[in-house]
Amino acid sequence: MTTPDSPVLRVAGRPVGRYVTRPELPEQLSPRPYLHPVTTLAGTAVTELSPADHIHHLGVGVAVPDVEGHNFWGGRTYVRDQGPTELDNHGAQRHSSFQLRDPDGFVEELRWVAAGAELLRERRTVAATELTAAAWALDFTFSLTNVTPDPVTIGSPATNGRPGAAYGGFFWRARKEKETPDVFTTDREGEAAVHGTRADWVALAGSAWTLVFAGATDRTRRDPWFVRADEYPGVGSSLASEERLTVPAGETAVRRIVTVVADGRLTRLEAAALVRKAVSQ
User: At 6, is the pLDDT very low, low, confident or very high (cuts 50, 70, 90)?
Assistant: First the structure.
């Protein structure tokens, strides 16, 4: 059932995702809108919400661990030479309004607020499209505009001194199953080989489903992938990997990720073909 605060995405009349705009969450989880549950066309769930291993993982959305020192990811903050630390520095993404709402998508305005001040204003565009009888695509664009008079910088644990932990940006927490999911690109296989690399697309394949993530703009494709499979299944696109991302006053950073959501386990050729179709639509 669609409600004003929780619209349902539909593909060919079938519900494939619920978007929660005003979640009731503790401050330590960095409250923010998210998509959950997201399902395949056959109804298999491919997201998780607040799992025991990382309760601040919220389905599909945008989460950033360091915006000018404020935590929009949730949980502990990685502090250089100190490690993960509990800090009272959590921000929140607040839904302002829908500019457009249709059964297959929406355009939303959000405010990124911390310590009583608005740092960023976001426009989020989400669209669901049927690809085949067994696959659909989630097209997710976010634009972050600096509304302060000074530059705003975005960081990650990696830029704060923790190698290999460049998470922050678009992030999809997938469903944890008994078996570890497979991870592959066009020419690499396995978490160790794929994590931190730049690739046109990354696939995460579970027992009866496959997710294929693709950067859909030149700028997005320059961001490396953050990949987890062994500890938990999740894939993100890293805004700040080697160095902090600076957004000058009044300027906007834009990223677009298209995700193929398929029933069954796709081959490399099948994944590549569906990505081409999804990104070209």
Answer: confident
